[in-house]
Amino acid sequence: ESNLRTLRQDYPEMWQxxxxxxxxxxxxxxxxxxxxxxxLGENIDWSLDFKSxxxxxxxxxxxxxxVDLRDDSxxxxxxxxxxxxxxxxxxxxxxxxxxxxxxxxxxxxxxSWRDGNPFERSINWTCAMETAFRCINWLLAYRMFGExxxxxxxxxxxxxxxxxxxxxxxxxxxxxxxxxxxxxHYLADLVGxxxxxxxxxxxxxxxxxxxxxxxxxxKEIPHQINADGLDYESSLPYHGLVTEMLLYAYLLSRHSDFxxxxxxxxxxxxxxxxLTRFTQTDGAIIPFGDGDDGRLVKIYGREPxxxxxxxxxxxxxxxxxxxxxxxxxxxxxxxxxxxxxxxxESKAVEPQPKSxxxxxxxxxxxxxxxxxxxxxxxxxxxxxxxxxxxxxxxSFTLECRGKPILIDPxxxxxxxxEQGRNRFRSTLSHNTVTxxxxxxxxxxGGLLFMLRRDSRPEVVQWESxxxxxLVVAENDGYCRFDDPVIHRRxxxxxxxxxxxxxxxxxxxxxxHRLDFNFHCxxxxxxxxxxxxxxxxxxxxxxxxxxxxCESRLELGISTNLVSPSYGVTxxxxxxxxxxxxxxxxxxxxxxxxxxxSDAADVGEQIAAARRAAQW
Length: 615
Prior knowledge:
Elements (H helix, E strand, L loop, with lengths): L1 H9 L1 H15 L2 E2 L7 E2 L36 H7 L4 H11 L2 H17 L11 H18 L7 H20 L11 H16 L4 H21 L11 H18 L8 H16 L30 H11 L11 H6 L1 H9 L10 E3 L4 E5 L3 E6 L4 H4 L10 E6 L2 E4 L11 H7 L8 E3 L7 E2 L2 E5 L6 E7 L3 E11 L6 E10 L4 E9 L3 E10 L2 E7 L2 E6 L6 E5 L5 E12 L2 E15 L2 E9 L5 H15 L2
Antiparallel strand pairs: 1-2, 3-4, 4-5, 5-6, 6-7, 8-15, 9-10, 11-12, 12-13, 13-14, 14-21, 15-20, 16-17, 17-18, 18-21, 19-20
C-alpha cells in the first residue's frame, strides 16, 4: 500500500491520466494505432479492424487471410486491442481507488474475449507473439489485483484454462523462420512460454515450456543481439521492444528458481545502455527503421518511442546512474518499491557528448558541444531479410542543443497502405542520395517485410579525437546498374567551429540523376543568402545554418510527411537538391549552430573546417 500512496503523492499528473484512461476503458473507449479515441460499443468486437471497418470471420486460424492489399484493412488493429495492454491499467486503477467497477470490467473483458475468440478459430489465434503478449498482460493484471480482489472460483478456472490454451498454442506455432535465423516474434513466443511455464510449472507441459523457453532465449541472444548490444533487425524502436521482452524475462527470474547466464545478463545491460544512448532529449528513441508502437506492457500511456521506464528499471537492477533526462518514472516504483526513492533522489548524471562507432551494427555518432549526429551505414538487417529495415543507408540525423533538426520521418503503417508503407521506407524518405530514382535496396511488390539485399555498405574510415570526428562510408547498392555507381559519403565534424561537413561522392562514368534530401519536422526555413539556409525548429531555439558548397546543385524546399507514431502523419519539410550530370560528381554541404548570421563570418567558419578536413 505504501507504493500506492507514493504513486498518488509523487506522480499526481500521471495518476490522473491513468485513471482517466482506465475510466475510458470502462466505456470501451480506445485510441490505438492512430485511430483517435473511439467507442467500441457495449460488446467489443475483438475481430474488427475499427479503423477500416473490416471484420475477420471465425474460421480455422490456418485459413485466416491476415493481409489483403486490395483494401485498407490492418490486422494489427484487432491484434493490438487483443494484446490487452489496458488490463494492467484497470488493475492499478482498482488498487488506487478501490472502485470495484475496474475489477468487474476485467472479468467481463476476459469472458468477452473468450466468447468472441473460440480456440484457434479467430484472427486473434493466428500469431503466437500476439498470444504471448495477451497472456502476459492477463497474468500481470490478475496478479496486480492480488488479495484486494477475490475473484470467484469459476472465473479463476476460466482464466487458467484460457492461459493454458495460450501456452499450448504458442508451443505449437513457434515463429521460427526455418532459415537459420529468427526475429523478435520468436523472442516474444519464448518470453510468453517462460511466463506461462512458470504459472503451470507443476504440470508436465508447464515444466517443458519453461525449460525450452529458457534454453532457446539463451541460444537466440548471440544470434539476434550484436556484440555492441543492438538488436540485429536494423530498427531502434524494435530494439526497444526486444529489450523490454528480455528485461521482463529477466525480472521473472528474480522471483523464481531459475536464472539466466552471465552472457544473457551482459547483453541485456548493453541493450539498456543503448536505450539510454539513443534516447533524445524529449524522451523518445530515434525512429531509425520500422516502428509500430509495440510494447509488451503499457501502464502509463507513454509516447510510443519512450522507453525510459525500462532504463529506470534497469538502473535499479544493475546499479547504473540515473540520466538527467529521465524525469519521473513511476513504473519503477511498481517493480522496486524499496529502491525507487533512493534511485529517484540519486544524483543525476548529465549526458556527456561522446562519439562512438558500432562496427557490428554500422552506426556512428559524431558529437561536439552543441551538435549530435547519428550516421547509419548498416546492411539489410535480420540476416539479409530486411523485414524492419528502411532504405536509410548513409543517412544521418542531426540534433542541435537537444533539438532534432534533420530527422528520420518514421514508419506510418504496414499492410493498410502498401504505397504509404513503401514511401516511408524508401530512399527518398531519408537523408541520403537517390540515384536515377531507384531504391538502394529493391522492394518486391506485395512483400512489405522484405528488401532485396542489393547494398552492402562499408565504413572505410573512422576517426574520433579532440579536434574532429570523421566517418567515411560507401554504399554499393547502385553497382547493379549497367554503369555501376558507388556512393561514398564522408562526415567531418570540426569541433572548434562546430561545423559539420557532409561530402557526397558519386563515382561512375556515365550520366545519372542525383536526388539529395534533408528531412525536417515542423520547422521554419529561411533563405539568408543564395547558398545559406536557416533551419529553425518550431520552438525557435537551436537554429542551424545549412550551406550548399556546390554551385551545380539546385536546392529547393518541398513538403513531406512525418509519422511520429504508427498510423499518424503530419506535414514536414524537406530540403532537396537535384542534378542530372555526368559522374563522377562531388557535392559538399555544411551545417553549423547559428551563432553568426553574417554570410562572411559563416563562410570563414566553413573555410576553417574545410582546411582542417583538407577538403
